[in-house]
Write a structure and sequence with these properties.
Helix content of chain B: 25-40%
Oligomer: heterodimer
Number of strands of chain A: 11
Number of strands of chain B: 22
Largest sheet of chain B: 5 strands, mixed
Strand order of the largest sheet of chain B: 2-1-5-3-4
Largest sheet of chain A: 5 strands, mixed
Distance between the termini of chain A: 33 Å
Strand order of the largest sheet of chain A: 6-5-11-8-9
Low-confidence stretches of chain B: none
Number of helices of chain A: 19
Mean pLDDT of chain A: 93
Order of helices and strands of chain A: HHHHHEHHEHEHEHHEEEHEEHEHEHHHHH
Strand content of chain A: 5-15%
Structural class of chain A: alpha/beta
Chain lengths: 460, 516
């Protein structure tokens, strides 16, 4: 723990690579965090668990005039989340309220809620900070979700490589149980909710929701084919809803302030704030919580601009699997699902913004990305198992100066052949960066093939 | 029924069917590797990708449920392109060693590569090499680089054999099929993995490098090893049996055979096999010709009849013999004037014979064992005695059937056993009386013999009183029991009062025929 504390102290001192700085814009989840105020009493002082009290009718407000019941009904909670425009923060951006409404609430057996904290996407480090420095917001968000969908048991699957975050979350769970926010008859209501933390083993694929379920069941983490979807056949074959950590963390604010208020902090169809993990060639890498629709230029400015005053070359806007966007296009975009997808041709993904300056060799960068996907492919289905290795070998050969002119077309075609033909999205995730790199920075690859060396040689 | 349009043809299939099932019904072949009609769906080979209207991506036919009015094209550009790209991926790391591969000529990958593969590979990088494994004397895993990771063998172990002996360990390119910490494959059904392996990764060790499939002529046969009568194809080259594989028959063995059915042919060519008649004279065996041997036996029998009377001649015939052999043996002994003929070589109690012209048999069709809901097995080493019947019961149990057992010692039947009564065989009558008493107690009738039921007896009775399709099966040990008739009588009483059929699992291929 002492080593972890030393790291935290450094984060606090510098405000870098963390969320303890004042350069957020209208923050909701990371507001007021300093690395030490994660405990239940601190969270309650920030207004924590008020949303849970509100839905359970334990906040002293008058009962509903028609029904005579205090608090919010399940439908009201789901309607509020729908109204907020909250979309899945794990990467896919699926509307959260809609996902919750898919849950068969009348299902007679056990139903499960799962929080996906298996944050493995290269560049992403937001869930780690939420779990470390504001764990109770996740617990409260999950309790609200469980209430809305009539679920009594939930799991938080935490990435295997973040040990202190797991320990921290367990501690927070103990606090919440002791305070009666978890367990049977929460705050004297009829609502029962048990939440358990589960520590994964660090495989990237276990962040895929069905692989996560397999892993949670104690099996090898391999994605299931869909259909059936988790809403009908999930954990242990029971209806299950899976959301990202940040999604749950956004819920208490929405309940406290209303769906409309949340929507208004973002832009239409892209409600609320989003934590962006800015990394790469910037002066102040770290987590930045800003409203959806904030211009990229503003985010870059918050992060201190490009390191050393260099020229921006390209940005990977949503974690390593999202297609790269060249600098001139990126500077025109705003940070929200629609702008990045429709105008940028990429994905907002998990919000991991990887900034690359003019000294970055795109061939070397792609080689590293491709190696990651080869290493993390689960090996279950053919195109991904065989294709990710082929992609890496091709890029590796080009980078070593042994490429052939025909490799360019081959590289793009192999990536194309993986896309859309695999069981889960890892195949697409491996193929998309390749296709985008080859599309936007073709000249660097061609230079490497022709001259046996990279166009950009001052890579640092 | 759900109607879909497949390549312009209307097909009706039951709800919940997959596109692959509709294609099977329509007689349309969709290329596939991991899909197998008797195994669960894995959808991992991606070879069966087809074009489904309104779906942006090609969909796997094996895992896409049919919906009313769905339009599927299996040969559109989109489908063919997807299938060709999957084939290319399968081939990049597959060794090009077909000329020395035992699977050559009967290899699904080889066949489909002709239709969907390119004539030249675009892959110029290093190929993957997978270390070979030694898993015992029957299944060869010498060339695991050929494996395409369809996981049919893994699913076979989990679902059909009931023991997960093979699994896919590691990840990505390093994924490989192996046993847990290098153990051997010991299942009594293990040879079937060879049949379902679509490539030459799992091959038959005894058959390795013995012959090519196209050199073999095929003869239909029936397994003599147990009462299942598994249908076989005996493959012959130059009048020598080279290999035995299953002949599919859904009413009997489906597409499986037990390892003893598959590998016992080796004894046909065994060096210690008796091929010439021999006479023992002066304490020594001497090889003679057939004429001499037959005359010697005939004279001996005549002499015995003359000296001691026809009644002093008896015949004990093995129920493993063929009907023809048994008929001729009976005619011989009856011709000599004796009626002393029997085939119950292991029986201790002979009063449980069927009425004249009937026989003790299974009491229901073999295929119906797969769909029973409640079973009580009495005195059987099920997996070893009748491996394919055990397989059928395993499928029933996987579908939710409750199987209870009365056995002499705890045994692993590789399926969930609902209730297990373990008692020394001398106490079996008492134990079964307990079950009968529990049934009587539950139904408020008089028990056939007075006994005090235990909790287990009551649980078995409760299980047998539930469900619809029920069977009480008496195993070999119950048939050979010194109080076999008492066991049968108790089983019949329980059967009558619970609506279960009662039958013997059958010891040998002709146990039933010889009795009739």
């Amino acid at each position: 723990m002492s080593q972890a504390n030393a790291v935290i102290e450094r984060f606090v001192a510098t405000g870098q690579e963390s969320c303890f700085h004042d350069r957020h814009i209208n923050p909701q989840i990371v507001a007021g965090l300093n690395g030490a105020n994660w405990r239940l009493k601190d969270y309650e002082a920030r207004g924590g668990y008020a949303a849970l009290r509100k839905i359970l009718g334990r906040d002293g407000s008058a009962p509903n005039a028609e029904t005579g019941v205090a608090g919010m009904t399940q439908d009201e909670v789901i309607a509020t989340v729908k109204e907020s425009g909250l979309r899945g923060r794990g990467g896919a951006g699926f509307p959260t309220g809609l996902k919750w409404s898919f849950m068969p609430r009348q299902f007679p057996g056990q139903k499960y809620l799962v929080c996906n904290s298996d944050e493995g996407e290269p560049g992403t480090c937001k869930d780690r900070d939420i779990l470390m420095y504001n764990p109770h917001v996740v617990i409260e968000g999950m309790a609200i979700a469980a209430y809305a969908m009539g679920i009594s048991v939930a799991y938080n699957y935490i990435h295997g490589e973040i040990f202190s975050a797991y320990d921290r979350f367990e501690e927070a769970l103990e606090e919440a149980r002791a305070a009666g926010f978890l367990g049977k008859g929460i705050m004297g209501s009829g609502f029962n909710f048990e939440l358990h933390a589960h520590h994964g083993f660090g495989a990237y694929i276990c962040g895929e929701e069905t692989a996560l379920l397999e892993s949670l069941e104690g099996k090898k983490g391999q994605p299931r084919f869909k259909p059936p979807f988790p809403a009908s056949f999930g954990l242990y074959g029971k209806p299950t809803t899976i959301n990202n950590t940040e999604t749950f963390a956004a819920v208490p604010w929405i309940i406290r302030n209303g769906g409309q208020a949340y929507l208004e902090c973002g832009k239409p169809n892209n409600g609320g704030t989003k934590i962006f993990s800015v990394s790469g060639d910037v002066e102040r890498p770290g987590n930045y919580e800003v409203p959806m629709g904030t211009p990229f230029a503003k985010l870059l400015e918050l992060a201190g601009g490009v390191r050393g005053g260099r020229q921006l070359k390209a940005v990977i806007p949503g974690g390593s699997s999202s297609p790269v966007i060249p600098a001139d296009l990126m500077m025109k975009l705003t940070m929200d699902y629609d702008s990045i997808a429709k105008e940028g041709g990429s994905m907002l993904g998990s919000g991991a913004v990887i900034v690359m300056d003019e000294t970055r060799c795109m061939v070397k960068s792609l080689k590293r990305l491709s190696y990651f996907y080869m290493h993390e492919s689960c090996g279950q289905c053919t195109p991904c198992r065989e294709g990710t290795g082929w992609l890496w070998r091709l890029v590796d050969r080009i980078e070593r100066g042994e490429g052939k002119p025909s490799d360019m077309a081959l590289l793009d075609n192999v990536a194309e052949n993986i896309m859309g033909r695999t069981i889960c999205a890892l195949g697409d995730a491996a193929a998309m960066p390749v296709r985008a790199m080859v599309k936007h920075f073709r000249h660097e690859f061609e230079h490497c093939i022709e001259h046996k060396q990279c166009l950009v040689t001052s890579d640092v | 029924m759900v109607e879909i349009e497949l390549d312009g043809q209307k097909v009706e299939v039951p709800p919940g069917s997959m596109v692959m099932h509709a294609a099977e019904k329509a007689g349309t072949f969709i290329p596939h590797f991991c899909y197998h009609k008797k195994l669960s769906i894995a959808a991992n080979c991606r070879m069966c990708l087809v074009d489904v209207e309104k779906a942006p991506k090609p969909m796997p036919a094996c895992a896409t449920p049919v919906t009313m009015g769905m339009v599927v094209r299996t040969k559109s550009d989109k489908a063919i392109k997807a299938q060709q790209s999957v084939m290319e991926f399968l081939l990049i790391n597959h060794p090009l060693d077909c000329p020395i591969c035992d699977q050559g000529g009967e290899c699904q990958l080889q066949d489909l590569a002709v239709g969907y593969g390119a004539s030249k590979s675009r892959y110029e990088e290093e190929k993957r090499v997978v270390f070979h494994k030694d898993v015992g004397p029957l299944v060869s895993m010498e060339e695991m680089s050929r494996c395409i990771h369809c996981t049919r063998c893994v699913r076979f172990g989990q679902e059909i054999a009931g023991v997960m002996e093979l699994g896919m360990s590691h990840r990505g390119e390093h994924a490989e099929i192996e046993t847990f910490v290098g153990q051997s494959v010991d299942s009594e059904l293990s040879g079937n993995m060879i049949d379902i392996c679509p490539v030459g990764a799992l091959t038959s060790k005894p058959f390795r490098y013995q012959a090519r499939t196209w050199e073999l002529s095929r003869r239909k046969s029936v397994s003599p090893h147990d009462a299942t009568g598994a249908n076989l194809i005996v493959q012959v080259k130059n009048h020598r049996v080279m290999r035995v594989v299953p002949l599919e028959n859904d009413a009997v063995n489906e597409c499986w055979i037990a390892d003893r059915d598959r590998y016992s042919y080796e004894a046909l060519n065994g060096e210690d096999r008796l091929t010439q008649p021999m006479l023992k004279q002066g304490g020594e065996w001497k090889t003679v010709d057939w004429q001499t041997a037959l005359e010697y036996v005939a004279n001996g029998l005549k002499q015995v009849k003359a000296d001691h009377g026809a009644n002093s001649i008896g015949l004990l015939a093995s129920p493993h013999s063929t009907v023809e052999e048994l008929a001729l043996a009976g005619a011989l002994v009856r011709g000599l004037g004796s009626e002393n003929i029997d085939s119950r070589l292991r029986a201790a109690d002979f009063s449980n014979v069927g009425a004249n012209g009937t026989a003790r048999w299974l009491g229901r069709s073999l295929a119906s064992l797969s769909t029973v809901q409640r079973v009580l097995v009495v005195g059987s080493n099920l997996r070893k005695d009748q491996p394919l019947m055990a397989q059928r019961l395993r499928q029933a149990v996987r579908q939710g059937a409750q199987l209870s057992a009365l056995v002499a010692q705890p045994m692993d039947w590789a399926m969930r056993v609902h209730q297990s009564l373990v008692a020394p065989s001398a106490d079996w009558v008492m134990a079964l009386s307990g079950v009968a008493a529990a049934v009587a107690e539950a139904q408020g009738v008089a028990a056939p013999v007075s006994a005090t039921p235990t909790e287990t007896d009551r649980a078995i009775a409760k299980s047998l009183l539930g469900g619809e399709h029920k069977a009480i099966l008496l195993g070999n040990a119950a048939a050979h029991h010194e109080k076999a008739s008492s066991l049968l009588a108790l089983a019949q009483w329980i059967g009558e009062h619970t609506g279960a059929t009662v039958g013997y699992l059958g010891e040998a291929a002709n146990s039933v025929a010889i009795e009739c």
